[in-house]
Write a structure and sequence with these properties.
Growth Hormone, Chain: A; globular; mainly alpha
Length: 422
């Protein structure tokens, strides 16, 4: 299939075509806060994970459960939050999710045992599911797919900036005030996000789907979404890209702090480099989308991802093990990630303007299902070497390239689904 002709409108001009109830600048800020809740929840506490594990005399697999269980709850809960938001609107679902998230974040910071911490993190994942799902869905409420990818990339730039702050801040808090301070900082962010939505967010759904929660309608909606080749193509891309990121996130604190001897603050700075690479990718994404269109953009980014993953894997197999033998190639991988995620997430939802919540939920569920599987596998496979991390990123980079060069190339022109048109 040929590459679609890129839009001739400038990004700014194109984005003004929406009938948004809020200014585009406010939409971007809201997106950054809501999407940024995910790295805040994970990255900020990663430097504290080894100390947390030691404090509770827990095993490595128990420590991984505080991350993987959160992400499984995050993914599964979206299957309910998505149809609820299609039925009742984005605003009430956002408010419910943020209240649950804030309460769970406070409970996590005060948890007296590893078991209770896991329970609170599961509830936190449920609240986060509502927040991130609505963020992706509101982009489809307000923008057409090509414009939505650019707006999404701006929101994900904000996510990257928050990720830049998260790991260094988490490292400093954990090093000087203990791991509970790092988890309490997550609660502060949740309170700020709740205040923003309560005071400034206006409903983005023009028409609520009154039948969205009926079992027969919901099953038919899921079947329609899961049989759509455009959804499957872009979901494969976003799942593979997030899989590579999560492989790094779930193993990085143990590799860099325990194996390579970095301090918590130094580890936070290494994560800062990762986030800056990601932010760079989101800027590249917006430029390439205007010039090349979605399919060619992700095809070129697939090559960047594959180069980064392959270089990381080959260096590790050659016995070259250092902070920069991992972080250098990871920088390339993260530039690609900054391109694949806005294109993949907006592209998967694009065909479904009337059921964007359900499509966003399924896309998020698939990403988190992969993350849970990776977290469970890493909990059993971390062997005191860098190979579980490097081999995992290498494998996902291959899958990213294959998805970009085959599935998205063939099915990524993103027509609205016939059954979902107004």
């Amino acid at each position: 299939m040929s590459v679609p002709t890129p839009t001739l409108l400038s990004p700014a001009a194109s984005e003004k075509t929406t009938n948004s109830p809020m200014p585009s600048a406010l939409v971007v800020v809201i997106l950054a806060m809501l999407l940024g809740m995910q790295p805040i929840t994970t990255d900020l506490y990663l430097p504290a994970l080894p100390a947390l594990t030691s404090s509770f005399a827990a095993t490595l697999s128990q420590a991984q459960l505080t991350l993987s269980a959160l992400l499984l709850a995050f993914g599964v809960s979206q299957l309910l939050w998505g149809p609820l938001s299609d039925r009742f609107g984005r605003r009430p679902v956002l408010l419910c999710g943020l209240v649950a998230y804030l309460l769970a974040a406070i409970g996590s910071a005060l948890a007296p045992s590893m078991d209770q911490l896991v329970v609170w993190r599961i509830l936190q994942g449920v609240g986060m599911g509502a927040v991130v799902m609505c963020a992706r869905a509101l982009v489809r409420d307000l923008y057409q797919p090509q414009d939505g990818a650019r707006i999404m990339s701006k929101g994900l730039t904000g996510l990257g900036v928050l990720a830049c702050v998260s790991a260094p801040l988490g490292g400093l808090l954990a090093q000087f005030y203990g791991w509970r301070a790092a988890l309490l900082a997550v609660a502060v962010f949740g309170a700020l996000a709740l205040a923003l939505i309560a005071l400034r967010f206006k409903e983005t759904m023009p028409h609520k789907n009154l039948n969205a929660m009926q079992p027969a309608v919901l099953l038919q909606t899921w079947r329609k979404i899961l049989s759509n080749p455009t959804f499957l193509a872009f979901s494969a891309l976003s799942v593979a890209s997030y899989g590579g990121l999560f492989t790094f996130l779930a193993s990085s604190s143990f590799v860099f702090i325990t194996l390579l001897g970095l301090s918590k603050a130094q580890f936070g700075m290494a994560m800062l480099f990762t986030s800056l690479s990601y932010v760079t990718g989101t800027f590249v994404c917006r430029r390439w989308l205007v010039r090349f269109g979605v399919q060619q953009t992700v095809a070129m980014a697939g090559g960047i991802s594959l180069c980064g993953g392959t270089l990381m894997g080959l260096l590790a197999w050659a016995g070259v093990v250092s902070v920069w033998s991992i972080m250098g190639p990871l920088g390339l991988f993260m530039v690609g990630h900054g391109i694949h995620q806005p294109c993949g997430q907006s592209g998967a939802i694009g065909p479904f303007p009337k059921s964007a919540g359900a499509a966003s939920a399924l896309n998020g569920f698939l990403m988190m299902l992969a993350a849970f599987g990776i977290g469970s596998w890493l909990g059993q496979r971390m062997d005191g070497t860098v190979l579980p991390l490097t081999n995992g990123v290498w494998l996902w980079s291959i899958l990213i390239a294959l998805s970009a060069w085959t599935l998205v190339r063939r099915h990524g022109d993103n027509p609205p689904d016939a059954a979902d048109k107004s």
